[in-house]
Amino acid sequence: MNRKEMLEAVHTEVRACTLCPLHAARTRAVPGAGPADAEIMFIGEAPGFHEDQQGLPFVGAAGRYLNELLTKVGIDRQHVFITNVIKCRPPSNREPKAEEVETCKPYLDRQIEIISPRVIVTLGRHSMARAFPEEKISTVHGQPREVNGQIYFPMYHPAAALHQPSLRSVLEADFARLRDLLDGNLEPETYTPPPDAEQLSLF
Hints:
This protein is of the alpha/beta class. 39% of the residues lie in helices and 12% in strands. A six-stranded mixed beta sheet has the order 2-1-3-5-4-6, with helices on both faces.
């Protein structure tokens, strides 16, 4: 199979998944969307109402704001891959539980392995915590870091800026830094997790 076929095979599994209780209340699972050879991969937290209805990631208000941020820095959404840490909507949009994240982890691992993106942008602390479990998003956002040869770029979730307008300028500045990174004008620092850290690697 080629990469596109391999990715679709994962997504077919996600759509039929019954490994955790979230499947019982979903309308549609949301495996992700974008090309199998995307240079940039965005990982959010979990599907919301509109995502659950359509089976597509970031199609609600946060998705519209993400589109705006991408456009401002000249990134075509059709050229990036977008997914979430968990693939089914939690009840009332609550935060994902640890066991739900762990259950969905193999799907995300396989997506990353297949796509092999140049940069993984983590949106929100749940996504960031899988690569940097002991960090705070308030201190590491906008700082690209290389872990085991993979570049991660932690950012606030676009939904956070919808609830806290003061974060809009922060997100816009971080997207400008992402553009600098892609253009070779910003170098990622090498990140080594603390030896006692519970490393929940994306690999």
